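Query structure, 142 tokens:
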């Protein structure tokens, strides 16, 4: 297995995060320009109620900066320790896929029951990646 193959899911999740960040920035300007939100809100992020279309995307961006940090860490650990194998790469892509699905649901029709499924599945997959790496390291240790 090519060592760098574990980095492609990392780039994909990074791209999703940057996309949502840019989308959120655009929506912030739109909300102020249309009068949906007073610009003074951004001084302390309180005092006014942001519109729902902005809250959904902003909260999704926050989600992409929370638990996925553990994915970035484990992916880099897999790369650095040279433990890249088909299992790790497939699991990494499954995790990233769950984040894309979660983001789509969260930022569009936002049904909590629907977005809970990819969120929980992604969490389980992330735990499996960590456990798999731990086992690989234990087995490969002298």
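Result returned for the query:
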């Amino acid at each position: 297995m090519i060592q760098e193959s574990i980095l492609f899911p990392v780039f994909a999740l990074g791209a999703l995060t940057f996309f949502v960040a840019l989308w959120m920035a655009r929506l912030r300007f739109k909300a102020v320009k249309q009068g949906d939100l007073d610009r003074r809100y951004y001084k302390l992020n309180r005092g006014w109620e942001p519109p729902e279309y902005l809250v959904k995307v902003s909260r999704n961006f926050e989600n992409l900066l929370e638990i996925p940090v553990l994915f970035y860490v484990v992916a880099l650990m897999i790369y650095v320790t040279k433990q890249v194998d088909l299992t790790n790469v497939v699991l990494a892509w499954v995790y990233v896929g769950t984040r894309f699905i979660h983001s789509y649901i969260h930022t569009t029709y936002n049904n909590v029951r629907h977005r809970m499924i990819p969120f929980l599945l992604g969490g389980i997959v992330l735990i499996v990646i960590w456990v798999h790496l731990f086992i690989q390291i234990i087995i490969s240790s002298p």
